[in-house]
Amino acid sequence: MPPLNSVLAPLPYETRLDARDPASVDLVVIHCTELPDLAAAREYGERVLYPASGTGNSGHYYIDRDGATLRYVAGDRIAHHVRGYNPRSLGIELVNTGRYPHWLDSRHQAMDEAYPPAQVDALLALLAQLRATLPSLRWIAGHEDLDTATVEASDDPSVRVRRKRDPGPRFPWPQVLAACGLERLRP
């Protein structure tokens, strides 16, 4: 069940995503969209990247800068949001520019946008709701904690950059960990 202030906004392919028992979810993964706004995030989420299943990459929930919360994928579906952890996790995407639009350029790796208080408050409300409805939920991680791969920089193939850096250095981990009741997973 989504939190009271969220809006159901299922992706067109939601029902094609693999089903799962919500009791198997023990991890929440925090992402940032690395896009300018929620509309761009929706456009990316709707893109079909896996023709065999007709699905793409997305989080389960998206939280805009003003705290507006949307559920794109139900918790009983496995969304493609983090390599190796999808079956056991829920993905929460925070709208934030991150490294946009030069994600892999070695000269553009700073992530300078802060997370507004309304967005962090909405995240904490969502995490509280999820803990109340998913008793198996125990862990929280950043995308950068779980996907530590490096790739060639787009501007210089001799330089390696992190494939994923979200939610990034401006994410308020101490505040979130103190309030959410989950343990940070760092494999």
From TrEMBL:
Keywords tagged on the record: Cell wall biogenesis/degradation, Hydrolase
Q: What is its EC number?
A: 3.5.1.28
Any Pfam family hit? Amidase_2
According to the UniProt entry, its GO molecular function terms are: N-acetylmuramoyl-L-alanine amidase activity
Top enzyme class: hydrolase
Q: Which reaction(s) does its UniProt entry say it catalyses? A: Hydrolyzes the link between N-acetylmuramoyl residues and L-amino acid residues in certain cell-wall glycopeptides
Q: Which residues form the N-acetylmuramoyl-L-alanine amidase domain?
A: 15-158
Record InterPro entries: Amidase/PGRP_sf, Amidase_domain, NAMLAA_amidase_2
Q: What is this protein called?
A: N-acetylmuramoyl-L-alanine amidase
Gene3D superfamilies membership:
Peptidoglycan recognition protein-like (3.40.80.10)
Say if the entry is tagged with keyword Hydrolase.
Answer: yes
Q: Which PANTHER family match?
A: N-ACETYLMURAMOYL-L-ALANINE AMIDASE AMID
- Top-rank taxon of the source lineage equals Bacteria
